[in-house]
Specification:
By secondary structure, the protein is of the alpha/beta class. It has 2 domains: about 50 residues, no CATH class; about 210 residues, Nucleotidyltransferase, domain 5. Strands 3-2-1-4-5 form a 5-stranded mixed β-sheet. Strand 2 and strand 3 form a beta hairpin. It is globular and about 60 Å long.
Length: about 260
Amino acid sequence: MLIRSLNWAVTLGRFDVMFPAITMARYSSMPREGHLKICLRVFGYLKQGTIRIHTERPILPGDGEPNPNRDWSQLYPTTKEDIPFQQPIAFGKSVRTWILVDADHAHDLETRRSVSGVMFFINGTLLKWYSKRQAMVETSTYGSEIVAMKRVVEIAYEMRYKLRMLGITIEGPTVIFGDNLSVILNGSKPESTLKKKHHLCSIHYIRHASASSIVSLRSIGSAQNISDCLTKALAPHLLQKLMKPIVFRKTCEDIVAALKES
């Protein structure tokens, strides 16, 4: 019953308890006393905090900096974003979309499967969150980050289509923030090379989205990546620091300021 209530709280918007909810759900068929204590502690945490809706346009880290000239003409000469021809006429102001992504390599001690965490924002409001164990066992941190990044690009395609079909104008590409610099460089620089063949399909999928101006990849420090709460159990002070800009914030600038902190 507690686990079902937790899942309902996640559906209503408390993304910060999504990781403990999916973790405890694995033991619902044969729970132990320790699992009950953990669930009760999570419900004690739920008594505080809320998610607010902010429609103001955020100024993200990296805005205003010179846009690097990436020549994708040799790799993808005819690529462009497919705009749905049946989309309704857009009304109102345009919105800006951005995503935070993280992966915890070999998190599961039994299967060594990694966990992906994704947070999708429209302007200053969190709209979609995702936390799930990856289907395959990756032997490196880079591999788990590549899998997570590919899933992020799929979500970007999905949400951009949905928003346009709702009559909403999207401003520019969807900015993706990740803390793995190698994945950011491989996915955004045409001259970068990758020798691991089993990751090439995912890399080309990400590059194609970059060349089409659907996404724009930017690096962020691990300590500022809020999606870290969707991939692992964090110490109370670390969780409080990450959640403060969103769950306990007052304005959209709070979360952007947290991203820029060094």
